[in-house]
């Protein structure tokens, strides 16, 4: 418990995955959390994000998450960063301060920058792959990025990380084939059901459910805790 109490973990992204990562970490005794997210709680978050309720709509996610952390453990130390992590602002974060980093953000360029920044600082990182358009939480696995399959986001990450010379990355991903939108939903989104061609409207946002992203988040929290304790015991 002393090891966990003295640990500092940064969680980038407080959505369906990240909000449950924070929950698992604080309830496991992690003493210091850095929370990074620029978004505000939206009504569309209520089906899957722990911090999203009718009372928190419109509030900064980092502020809501901080309050919940302190409600669970008043002695926890919480630092909020209400900003989007981007390659352009990566240098504003001191990654050497963190004992572990959790990547629960959606943008590929930001995920890659986060992995590279942790690599330079020698800080352990675990990354969440895609949980959208999935219905089976039992298909989630922990693996190295180069051992993944099926997940479209993992495929992109494998290619980009290999090009950057990154040799390994612990991830949580799902082997479940992503579901496809129904034909009428594709037409509403401006897509052709036959060809998949994009019309004049935006690409459809992936669907999400209440029981896949949270499971991914708790798995990640468990990996962080186990790795911190393993590192401590090997010293």
UniProtKB/TrEMBL annotation:
> Where does this protein have coiled-coil stretches?
none
Q: Which residues form the THIF-type NAD/FAD binding fold domain?
A: 2-231
Listed name of the protein = tRNA threonylcarbamoyladenosine dehydratase
Set out the biological process GO terms recorded for this chain's protein: cyclic threonylcarbamoyladenosine biosynthetic process
Q: Spell out the InterPro entries in the cross-references.
A: ThiF/MoeB/HesA (IPR045886), ThiF_NAD_FAD-bd (IPR000594), Ubiquitin-activating_enz (IPR035985)
- Domain of life where this protein originates: Bacteria
Native organism is Anaerotalea alkaliphila
Its Gene Ontology molecular function terms?
Answer: tRNA threonylcarbamoyladenosine dehydratase; ubiquitin-like modifier activating enzyme activity
The cross-references to Gene3D superfamilies, in alphabetical order and at most eight, read: NAD(P)-binding Rossmann-like Domain
Residue ranges spanning the membrane: these are none
């Amino acid at each position: 418990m002393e090891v966990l109490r003295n640990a500092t973990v940064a969680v980038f992204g407080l959505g369906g995955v990240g909000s449950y990562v924070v929950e698992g970490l604080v309830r496991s005794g992690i003493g210091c959390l850095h929370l990074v997210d620029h978004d505000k709680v939206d009504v569309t978050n209520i089906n899957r994000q722990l911090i999203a309720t009718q009372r928190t709509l419109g509030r900064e996610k980092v502020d809501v998450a901080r309050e919940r952390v302190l409600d669970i453990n008043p002695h926890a130390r919480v630092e909020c960063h209400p900003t989007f992590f981007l390659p352009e602002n990566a240098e504003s974060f001191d990654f050497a301060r963190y004992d572990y980093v959790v990547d629960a953000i959606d943008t590929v360029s930001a995920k890659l920058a986060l992995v590279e920044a942790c690599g330079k600082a020698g800080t352990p990182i675990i990354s969440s792959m895609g949980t959208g358009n999935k219905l089976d939480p039992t298909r989630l696995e922990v693996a190295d990025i180069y051992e993944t399959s099926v997940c479209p986001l993992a495929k992109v990450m494998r290619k980009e990380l290999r090009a950057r010379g990154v040799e390994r990355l612990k991830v949580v991903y799902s082997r479940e084939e992503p579901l496809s939108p129904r034909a009428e939903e594709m037409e509403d989104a401006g897509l052709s059901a036959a060809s998949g061609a994009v019309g004049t409207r935006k690409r459809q946002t992936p669907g999400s459910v209440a029981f896949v992203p949270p499971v991914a988040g708790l798995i990640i929290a468990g990996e962080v805790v186990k790795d911190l304790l393993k590192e401590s015991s090997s010293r």
